[in-house]
Amino acid sequence: MPGTLRVEIAVQDAAGVRIALTAGASHIELCQALGLGGLTPSAGLIEAAVAAARDASVPGFVHVLVRPRGGGFVYDADEIDTIVRDIRRSASFAVDGVVVGALTAQGELDLEALARFVDAAGELDVTVHRAVDAADDQLAAVAALAALGVRRVLTSGGAVDCRAGLGTLRAMAEASGPVEIMAGGGVRIADIALLAGAGVDAVHLSARGTTTRGGTSGPGGGVAGFDITDPGLVRAAVAAAGVVAR
């Protein structure tokens, strides 16, 4: 059926939240440390994002990434417990959804952990992130999610980026049933029409630029500058998604 793709923007600060709202993004993945693949944001940032979306009267907007560390997605008991606690804390701030994922040491989705995450989320939307792409069988992984009550999956089709994974994304979209497929991983504006043709439901991008505002990090180490959300890229993505049909 013809329609437009939804656009999710990964944002790391309150300014990014406002940019995504103003530019017309469907929703955001709120996180920090995108250089590490994204980590759980602070309580203050979650509160600010929820307030901004409420003030703009945009429902369903704030989806919080819950990931306790960088690296792979095989978590020990303490890390799983931390994720559950962070999901519940995020829910207490009236967010709209959480973004989670976990794998077993055998390269399969950790369905037991994911069931705990879904239970902790309650009525919130649950997105399973690109842990799916690190699974041995991406199609089987997505097929297992519907029974858990997962709303959507963020995936590159198991490839280094969405272009290389286009065939698998198409297969996922055809077989996913009620689980929405959101394409992410190196998404460029020019890719959006291709992804729409593959039948995905949404696209995800960080739309990042950099700034050196605030000066250097000093002799204690660190990096020069930090990520910002580029308003032009967000507007371009929303515009491109608005003119393609699925």
UniProtKB/TrEMBL annotation:
It comes from the Bacteria. Transmembrane segments: none annotated. InterPro entries: CutC-like, CutC-like_dom_sf. Gene3D superfamilies: Copper homeostasis (CutC) domain (3.20.20.380). Keywords: Cytoplasm. Coiled coil: none annotated. GO terms for cellular component: cytoplasm. It is found in: Cytoplasm. Belongs to the CutC family. This is PF03932 family protein CutC.
